[in-house]
Amino acid sequence: MDIATRVYNHKWKIDPIIRSLIDTDFYKLLMCQSVFRNKPDTTVTFSLINRSTHVPLARLIDEGELREQLDHIRSLSLSRGESTWLRGNTFYGKRQMFRPDFMEWFEGLRLPPYHLERKGDQYELTFEGKWHEVMLWEIPALAVLMELRSRAVLDKMGRFELQVLYARAMTRVWEKIEKLREIDGLTIADFGTRRRHSFLWQDWCVQAMIEGLGEKFTGTSNCLIAMRREVEAIGTNAHELPMVYSALADCDAELAQAPYDVLSDWHDEHEGNLRIILPDTYGTQGFLDRAPDWLAGWTGIRIDSGDPAKGAEVAINWWKDRGEDPAEKRVIFSDGLDVPQIQDLHAQFSDRTKVSFGWGTLLTNDFRGLVPGDALAPFSLVCKAVAANGRPTVKLSDNPEKAMGPAEEIARYKRVFGVGKQERQDVIV
What we know:
Blueprint: H1 3-8, H2 26-38, E1 43-50, H3 57-60, H4 63-74, H5 80-88, E2 90-91, E3 94-95, H6 100-107, E4 115-119, E5 122-130, H7 131-134, H8 138-154, H9 159-181, E6 188-190, H10 199-213, E7 217-220, H11 223-229, H12 240-247, H13 252-269, E8 276-277, H14 284-289, H15 293-296, E9 300-303, H16 308-321, E10 330-333, H17 339-349, E11 354-359, H18 361-364, E12 381-388, E13 391-392, H19 407-417
Parallel strand pairs: 6-7, 6-11, 8-9, 9-10, 10-11
Antiparallel strand pairs: 1-5, 1-12, 2-3, 4-5, 12-13
Helix pairs in contact: 4-8, 9-10, 12-13
């Protein structure tokens, strides 16, 4: 595919940014089914948060064009082929991962309304409604904002300039893949949907990974690309679940128990490689110290904030303390990774535990230094659940730079979860 020409022809609007309701991450659909089953009456508000305030999204992106893309998403529904793939495919070794009642609901879904307002140089974009409906806005909303920002920069470039730009970006990706190919025993997946440069670029990156890494490439989080390229759809669960469950708690005791209630519900639905703990929502060490014994039997842990090496050490020590063999467990690293960090972490831990990597933004959006003013550099944009049944949500994280929620609630959560001093780290993506 000549991506440069397709980008140049965006001026003729041949490419909607979101092409399908399954142009989303696999974990969102898994979580959606869990919410559909366990919390169908919960009302949740999601909000866009630009952590990189130096990127003036409202000055870069035309509001009319943004509304056009969001309205297009609201017109989408599952195609027959997409429904057949979800209903009949094998995911993580299990057929009919998605239950008939969930699929019947999903096949009739149109995403609910959005609220968009300009506030200075940023957009306020929110979604409110039943949790299992509005949660499916998160990934497409992020992808739209990221790609419209890319298009705003690319719009000023000529055809040959675009060809050179993409040639350089392709070379960069391929040189990374060549370095990764040298790592014995590597297992790595694409986690780059939410902050990708564009859909076409993510699709190209996945194809490059397929060819360049062979069996070392385990799949992609993007359901549409997984279906089209016939690779595994990869993903488990995210911070959204404990954030909302915790907001629904009526007292401190229920709050302390909420993250484990999430995993108890998950345990009832999934097994094997889908039983992956994400422990850092309210501090990894405290979460593991208070965890019930049955959780130690799960398959592994995903590390998504803080110092990844320290997080892996904490997990390994926890398994040992609970009588589990770390060599039989899986550690998935997934926070802002690039090749040097992947090389170091694999060398440090591959002989002690099963190591995997979810490679995100710096796979699908590494255009750093390729245009004047670094105007295509990736930035940190998130869309988070900020309220549940009218109560604010809180995320603490192992990195306080990623914390979110009202100050008084953050203080309460730190007290309840025993979070002490934390080490700050720059949030790049």
